[in-house]
Amino acid sequence: MPTLNLYGDSLHGEWTLTSPQHPQIHTRCSLPGDIHSALLEANLIPDPYFACNEQQVQWVGESEWHLSRTFTLSAHELSASRLLLGLTFVDTMATVWVNGQEVLQCHNMFRRFEADILPWVMAGENQIQIRLLRNDAEAAERASRLPFPIPWAQGNNQIPHMNLLRKTQCHAGWDWGICLLVSGVYGEISLEPVFAVQPLQVRTEQEWRADGSCRLHVDCTYQVDKENVPLVAQVTLLSPTFSAQGSRQENSQHQVEQIHLEFPPQPCGEGRFRHRIDIAHPQRWWPAGYGPQPLYTLQVAFIDVSAPDTDAPITARNKLIEKRIGLRQLELITEDDAIGSSMLFRVNGQAITAKGANWITLDALPSRHTPERYRRLLEDAVAANMNMLRVWGGGMYEQDIFYDLCDELGLLVWQDLMFSCALYPSTPEFLLDVEHEVRYQVQRLADHPSLALWCGDNEVIGAIGWYPESREQRVKYTVNYDRLNRLLAEVVEQEDPSRRFWASSPCNGELDFGDAWHDDNRGDMHFWDVWHSGKSFDAYHSVKPRFCSEFGFQSWPSLPTVKSFAEPDEWNITSPTFEQHQKNGRGNSIITEMITRYFRFPISLEQQLYLSQVQQALAIKTAAEYWRAYKNHCRGILFWQLNDCWPVSSWSSIEYSGRWKLLHHHARHFFAPLMATFIHEPFAHEPNAQGQPMLTLHLVNDRHATQSLHGEVLQLSWQGDVLQRWPLTCTAAPDSSAPIWQIPLPERNPSNASGSPNASESEARRGFYHVVLHPASPNHQANERFENSFYPDEFKRLPLQPAQIEYCISGDDQGSYIELWSQHPALFVHVEYSGEGRFEDAGFTLLPEAIGGRRRLRFIGSASCAELAAGVKVYDLRSTY
Q1: Beta-mannosidase Ig-fold domain: from which residue to which, for each copy (predicted)?
Q2: Residue 498: CA count within 13 A, CB half-sphere
């Protein structure tokens, strides 16, 4: 077995994996990690993501697994008062054995478990074993003991009763997720000898003064194990520009404060001290797009003055807790108004428009939850001008690296508690387990400046009306729900009074059990009428949510991603492999039907995949731009979903491979701080004297500064000729949306029975409208421009001309580029590279070269010009038929 020389180290690394049901298996497993990944690495299972292999690996989740290793201890370590074994993210039912003695039982993936193993260890080599028990069997056994049935998410989960376990719910499958009932240990596995004092927790609280200063309260709890020993604590706050490496400090920078606190000898037991630090000129933390993200470093060290190595550095001989904190004020504002009730976040006194997406678990195989992948996805979110992510309640409370990166990047976090799309027990043992879980998670995460909101669950209020049992006895199941939800609220309020608790998503407000799926006057809304009910994209104009925390539309993945999971003879939308990688029962049918509604149907698979992504981008763009134009009504737009946990057809804007779909490229524009959008509806702003419908251009400014712009609106024929030109000079007030241009335009109507064109068809045959705006400041970047287009009819009815796109690839010291030009307008232009990397923009309208429409795109990646030339494919809408 692998061994470890231990002092202040972890038990991470190589373990031995066996199974009592499969005695022939004896292989390695790296922890933190999961069993499926270990078996895959050992070639004992096929890749579950490829073809239809999902069904071939279900036996793994139906087996018990044992993880074993040895570790060594010295006599010095055995002289400690306690030797603490700590584990986090243990998935899920498990027992831990040391030298043949059971020392710990784990039963909740979202809790930290700890045991003093000193009575069962010895100097020299020791053995530890983690037995991962069958989660499916435990769920079935718990179901048999319930006082009344608790319905589970049968439309999503393939394994019954996962709602009875405190485990990632989508491990049993979802309507975008593979069913892999993984198990393992994904977090800390530590051994910590305690000699004199053990720091337990450091929490902070910010008190803001009228003069703009901030008083930081530092609250520390600790455990004393040795009586009558003097205790010294050192509290250090480093400014955001201060750097420290171990005990070496950069003297060119400064400390905000460092203080030594000396305590008289204390009895054994838990202690606590509170210290305050006054910061006269705090550097405030802001969400992305609103300002910088300075992070202070707080260190609390306990110095054992009785230790023999008193000259050693603090970090080497003592217990140190270090965390980064951001100084900011954050409020969730829900105030009654003429419409209903507002819902918006205010940061440092300024109203914020939340723009972003929903976050699901990073990968169905937790071994692949690497810091590099977290960073790449979160940086991609910021690159698309997002400032908020909702951590969805069917996944997991994320790893520390996720919240650290959100702090660093300025991504606000809407944090669901882990309950989703099912009902849950309210038995005493379940409630006690959940109480410990939520208390631990709130204590763990509360000091992150990115954390904006605690939400009780995802769609559980609504789920009461989904199941026959709860529909028949609605009062009973509502009381059952309320018992759990009230407990969650109480724990959050006790542990983090600085933040609001939001009962559920969607929710109309506190103690309001109304229909938040369809009420756009208050609370947060999940608007799914387009995808699930088959309504047109114009249905997004029928509502103006106060805060839309879910809406979405699926697309198929790109061809390079399809190639990663399907053999060439399976490259077909209705092949077994492709359908295995579509988990929504009607998904492919909905995508196909909507394509026929708006577009001419493409023939090749490549064109079908591309057009599905055009359609998805158009759907979300339609909603986001409209709601942003009415920003006084709507202050939050989070689409479903940012990422995929395996290669699949889904609602994501970024594919499992990391490729940006067209939606993510479009999000960079429709979430931009400055945005211009056309809105065509009856009396969109003010009707003209004849009461005609109007086409209005709205200018949206999320910045808290006035913006001056100039540019023009063009009406272009389908050949690319300029039919009309309207010069524009405009000023956008801070945090505003206002119309800046308007003309009468007939409503879109189907052709009449005679077959002669109506007014809207005649308009569509003439051409389309396009706006280009530039900042008026003389020192703005040359490529800083804001564009958008309006097309007067369904795309299948438009007389598009073959664009005849040409391009060339070049490079210089700054990187590689593609330059594109065309003879006629090209819609939804997308340059796809088959290898790693992407071009900086996609999905745009390329105007003819004759009127200055040439575009130069930078490549983001390491491919050479020769590699790009061999691997580039250019798509546009007209080329699909």
Answers
A1: 800-879
A2: 20
For Cα atoms 861, 865, 871, give the angle at the middle one, nearest 5 degrees.
75
The count of other CB atoms within 10 Å of the CB of residue 257 is: 17
* pLDDT tens profile 711-759: 999 999 999 999 999 999 999 999 999 999 999 998 776 544 445 556 6
Q: Are 605 and 592 in contact (CB under 8 A)?
A: no
Q: Which residues share a beta bridge with 352?
A: 345
- Asked if the domains at 335-672 and 673-770 fall in one CATH topology, the answer is no
Q: Which residue has the tokens 């407990």?
A: 487
What's the CATH superfamily of 13-191? Galactose-binding domain-like (2.60.120.260)
Structure-block tokens of residue 624: 């986001």
- Architecture of the domain defined by 196-325: Sandwich (2.60)
Q: Helix 662-670 crosses helix 605-629 at what angle (to 10 degrees)? A: 20
Asked whether 859 and 835 are in contact (CB, 8 A), the reply is: no
Rounded CA gap, 373 and 392, in Å?
A: 18
CATH dotted code for 335-672? 3.20.20.80
**pLDDT recorded at residue 5:** 36
Q: Measured between alpha carbons, how far is 505 from 509 in angstroms, rounded to an integer?
A: 10
Is 304's pLDDT higher than 60?
yes
Fold classification of 673-770 (topology level) = Immunoglobulin-like (2.60.40)
Of 268, 267, 306, 274, nearest in space to 201 by CA = 274
Between the CA of residue 130 and those of 9, 68, 435, 523, what are the distances in Å?
Answer: 18, 6, 25, 45
Q: How far is CA 47 from CA 563, 574, 576, in A?
A: 14, 21, 16
Q: What is the tens place of the pLDDT at every residue in 387-444?
A: 999 999 999 999 999 999 999 999 999 999 999 999 999 999 999 999 999 999 999 9
DSSP state of 491: H
Which pLDDT does position 782 carry in this prediction? 55
| Residue 763: HSE in the Cβ half-sphere, 13 Å Cα cutoff | 20
Instruction: Give the β-pairing of 524-526 and 547-550.
Output: parallel
Q: What residues does 217 pair with on adjacent strands?
A: 205, 276
| Residue 558 near residue 661, CB atoms below 8 Å | yes
| CATH code of the domain occupying 800-881 | 2.60.40.10
Measured from the Cβ of residue 8, the count of other Cβ atoms closer than 10 Å reads 12
Give the rounded distance of the alpha carbon of 396 from its chain centre: 11
Residue-wise DSSP of 660-717: BPHHHHHHHHHTSSEEEEEEEETTSS---TT---EEEEEEEE-SSS-EEEEEEEEEE-
Q: How many alpha carbons fall within 13 Å on the CB side of residue 737?
A: 24
HSE (side-chain half, CA atoms, 13 Å) at 248: 1
Query: Contact at 8 Å (CB) between 92 and 165?
Result: yes
Q: Residue 284 forms beta bridges with which residues?
A: 327
Query: Would you list the domain boundaries of the chain?
Result: 13-191, 196-325, 335-672, 673-770, 800-881
- Both tokens of 166, joined, read 């405190």
Residue 385 above 80 pLDDT?
yes
316: Cβ–Cβ under 8 A, 6 or more apart, which residues?
A: 247, 309
Provide CB contacts within 8 A for 390, sequence distance 6+: 356, 357, 358, 359, 413, 414, 416, 455, 505, 549, 638
Using CB atoms within 10 A of its CB, is residue 823 exposed (0-12), middle (13-18) or buried (19+)? middle
Look at the pTM and tell me if it is higher than 0.85: yes
Q: How far apart are CA 245 and CA 773, in angstroms?
A: 47
The answer for residues whose C-beta is within 8 angstroms of residue 615's C-beta and 6 or more apart is 553, 555, 591, 594, 595, 598, 599
Among 336, 681, 380, which residue's Cα sits nearest to residue 510? 336
* Cβ atoms within 10 Å of 105's Cβ, excluding its own: 12
Enter the tokens of residue 809.
């690839």
Q: Are 129 and 97 in contact (CB under 8 A)?
A: yes
